Amino acid sequence: MMICEKVDSPESKPADTIVDWKGGESVLCLRSSSGNELCRGVGYVAADRVHVGGPSAAVHAWVEGIEQHDTIDDHDLDRKFLVTKRVEGQTLEQAWPWLSSPQRIRVADDVGRVCAIPAANTSSRFETVTGRSVHEPRPIDDAPKPHPTWKPRLFGPLSQERCLLTLGFTFYHADLGPTNVLVSDDGDRATGIIEWESGAYYPRFYVASKPASGAFGLECETEDPERWGQLLAEALQRHGYKVAAEYLP
Length: 249
Description:
Layout lengths: L1 E6 L9 E7 L2 E7 L16 E5 L8 E2 L4 E7 L4 E6 L5 E2 H4 L5 H16 L5 E2 L36 H6 L3 E4 L8 E3 L6 E4 L6 E4 H9 L14 H12 L11
Antiparallel strand pairs: 1-3, 1-4, 2-3, 5-12, 6-7, 8-11, 9-10, 10-13, 11-12
Helix pairs in contact: 2-5, 4-5
């Protein structure tokens, strides 16, 4: 288990710190921890825990002009940590109420443009980058009630339209909700995309179909909570991704 923790100064960092770096007025430390430490009890303090990454965590970020501080290899769990500079800006969820319509469209275009970059990486299978199964229930039909929750289910069957749109599998973030998109302080552009743990090789039709289905709703005060998903789907379609009719609201 890995913990990213905030401390006041380099002198107060834990003895088992693997690497530390400056984060605003504080110091951020990455260290190993046993699962027992995370159990709530006497001495449990969560206020300064920045991120807890278990064996399945693979949180990465696309950041414009990213500045890399360090790279750490965790050979036991076959994973890598990329320590980067803190991203400036705010989430789209926070900025949405005061963004103008042109700004919202511009941010959607930025995200669509970025999605097209990793999408150049393709696979012949529906899988993660390490060849594991993908935790994403939306593309899979609901299982019949007698089907045990632990038993694997096949992807599909695909409709004829889906088969025509599924020309291989393309790398996709799959969780582009407004809390995972960062925008500049003036709201004119997207500055980062975070939380890539759902990133995997998805059917090509799914890239624009998921936001079009209403999956990325806004929780802030707004007249149209589904507007972000609609704008993103339109931007992705401009980049060549089609929406399967069955995913339209």
